[in-house]
Amino acid sequence: MKIHHIAIICSDYDVSKKFYTEILGLNIIREVYRKERQSYKLDLAIGDHYVIELFSFPDPPPRPSRPESCGLRHLAFSVENVQDKREELVKKGLVCEEIRIDEYTGKEFFFTQDPDQLPLEFYEM
Fold it and tell me: Any idea where the VOC domain is (predicted)?
């Protein structure tokens, strides 16, 4: 029917929480600390659409993302104006790749990454 959510395990919960809420602007639905797992679970939404579960776990192993490796390649977010979004993120201190044009759709897009180097794409609606 549709994707319900995407789960992300982060290496530094406070840094990733700030990134996804203050830098990207996702809304917090609920935040739970699970004492038995020493783990936070943060449910995040774009508007009122639940999209990401952000987890913390003690000492998670790193996952390679570059060069291209198996597994999740990147997360893509739809935006109305790619140039405006890129400028906004650069002003907030993110390193963003230059804007490219999708050769098949003609739409603009660019990449940046989250604090754990998970590639994030911003794609023109």
Answer: 2-125
CA distance linking residue 70 with residue 58, whole number of Å? 24
Classify 92 as helix, strand or coil. Answer: coil
Side chain identity at 50, as an amino acid letter? Y
Whether residue 61 has a cis bond before it, omega within 30° of 0:
no
| 86 and 118 assigned to the same domain | yes
Task: List pLDDT tens digits, range 26-44.
Answer: 999 999 999 999 999 999 9
Greatest C-alpha distance within the chain: 49
Query: Which H/E stretch holds residue 16?
Result: helix 13-18
Provide the CB-side half-sphere exposure for 105 (13 A, CA): 8
Strand, helix or coil for residue 99: coil
pTM, rounded to two decimals? 0.88
Beta strands in the chain (DSSP E): 6-10, 27-34, 39-46, 49-56, 75-79, 100-101, 108-113, 119-124
Query: At 2, which CATH number?
Result: 3.10.180.10
Residue 88 sits in which domain range? 72-125
